[in-house]
């Protein structure tokens, strides 16, 4: 096996391309978008994923591009501040955890690989035959030894090889939307949050960013929507946030003009196997933990490292699954648990959470309470001992 095709040039795809090339494979990456996608939201790199980043020689660069977030402040419907917490506690970060904008991280990964990996932009896979022949929307057929689906929770490779998306999706009963908006609140490395029963709005601006990101999350039964119908998705968001106070009406007006609008259900992907025939899945395509887990980027980085290493050292896709399964299970468990603190189900629960935030600096059991927040994330992020595949 020497010639490998990767579908998707996001973090899972570019990281997998790097490690496969390091092990001597010939790598091609096909990406539907016309170029590497810039921007995006802030993401965390924790635990074992930091080790992967360090082994790529990118740790200093990642820290140099860190978000440098300082504080998160909660506001009521009238705009009065209710509670403030440090940004690291708000994000569940401890120790050496790093936070970076998704586009910045992907740019670093792409720059590591662009001279040694063939990137084909503006194209997509239409078929994968048993003999390795792959057909494309725009390019002519080509033959590969292996196809890696690194194309996200709505993976095209997974659909072609494993079956319909609905067979592997576990809905968590929430939706999320995020986009760039003007920084009318004058935020500087801070988050402004308005939480109401069943829905939350969050605006933040990171270091050296003149704009802001608006993030909305709310509880909802499954919605009938088209993943490519952005106008329809914006209407669904406006309906979900209708009647909300604080800055939400102004934010919804700004959303209308956003050209980087993201909207999706908060869901996980669960498969009994991540490989079939000449295809294997990595990152969200195989084991999306949902945005609520805060571990999607770390899962992609660690998954890429383990997949390439096991292929190169004889473990194959069986070794990949054996090594990674417990890590994935630990991190997927975070999603449903974290949602309870991200979208509060009732006014009483919301009052209790905000009261605890206000009192936290003065509580005698402060350290224990912080560990209850950050401990599960820390343990999940470190729930794998990485092999040194270079030996």
TrEMBL record:
Pfam families per UniProt: FAD_binding_3
InterPro entries: FAD-bd, FAD/NAD-bd_sf, FAD_aromatic-hydroxylase
Domain spans labelled FAD-binding: 2-313
Name recorded for this polypeptide: 2-polyprenyl-6-methoxyphenol hydroxylase-like FAD-dependent oxidoreductase
SUPFAM superfamilies listed in its UniProt record: FAD/NAD(P)-binding domain (SSF51905)
One MF annotation (Gene Ontology) recorded for this entry: FAD binding
Chain coiled-coil ranges: none
